[in-house]
Amino acid sequence: MLIKTKRSYELTENQVTDETIYQGRRKVLKQLGFISASALLGSNTLATTASADETVFKTKALQFSSSNSSTISEQFTPEHKVISHNNFYEFGAKKDQPQKLAQNFKVEPWQLKVSGEVNKPFTLDYEQLFSSFTIEERIYRLRCVEAWSMVIPWLGFRLADLIKKAEPNSKAKYVAFKTLYDPEQMPGQANRYLGGGIKYPYVEGLRIDEAMHDLSILSVGLYGKTLPPQNGAPIRLVTPWKYGFKSIKSIVEIKLVERKPKTTWNKLAPNEYGFYANVNPEVDHPRWSQGSERRLTSGGLFARNRIKTQMFNGYGEDVASLYQGMNLRKHY
Ligand SMILES: Nc1nc2c(c(=O)[nH]1)N[C@H]1C(S)=C(S)[C@@H](COP(=O)(O)O)O[C@H]1N2
Ligand SMILES: [Mo]
Prior knowledge:
This protein is of the alpha+beta class. Helices cover 22% and strands 21% of the residues. The protein has one domain (2-323): Alpha-Beta Complex (Sulfite Oxidase, Chain A, domain 2). Strands 5, 6, 9, 10, 11, 13 and 14 form a seven-stranded mixed beta sheet that branches. Strands 4-3-12-7-8 form a five-stranded mixed beta sheet. A two-stranded antiparallel ribbon has the order 1-2. Residues 86-90, 142, 144, 179, 202, 231-232, 244-245, 247-250 line the site of ligand MTE.
């Protein structure tokens, strides 16, 4: 399997780790079977034999200003937090419910259908999710609209690669995504109270240029392993300059469409959640400020982890041009 090198916008390992940790981490990644595609295919074996020790990932670095003008370290969010503090309403609307209620979620067999305004529609089965495109590691910030955030080492491939394979036609202006609908497996879909009042299946969308942007990935893993069910196994979207709710989980359908697709949170509360949902510290949520966020780190309850939110979550250099001339207060 090919692992590509980092691009300028990514948090590089040199930024977030010191040299000894970096070397140790590389070794772990190698042991995990990054070198062969077949190793990734056996998800269960990978997940259980994976020995990625979060301490290897735990790091200091990338200094930046916090709201109280001291500096704090930007560090990986420990794996145990990434997989236990989740939003996945199909498995309950409380942060600790997805990890508990998604444990028996079946990802095999899986079918991801790519269709719509394309010349070559296709479907990927479970194994093809891991073998059809170049998997790379991307270390990204994830900023939830609820004003908490993490730094996560994802494994995934460029959404653009998948879209290109389908050969979109000239009518393809947007990309619509859909999560699995399976109330027997997803208790939040069977029980309105547990599922937070969402009308399922969860749907999301991007403008085609956003989808084709190099930052947009479909993730199939994190911390060197296949995705845990609570994080959206077997495949989920990651668009790091947008609020987390755009990063739709457990995707079964990607459709190229002509019109702007409906999106779950926008349908539920249009005055609170827009279609674009770009991270923007200057446009507050009607019920709370978006000027700062609580970064989940290795620190305990009293860690000083309140930091300033950055425009486009710190990825402005790469994505601001997508929104040139747009009023971002109106198109929130
Ligand atoms: N299908 C689906 N996808 C979803 C959600 C959800 O409830 N259902 N929650 C979203 C929200 S609000 C966030 S912040 C991220 C959280 O991803 P994580 O649990 O991997 O941190 O997933 C997003 N994707
Ligand atoms: Mo979120």
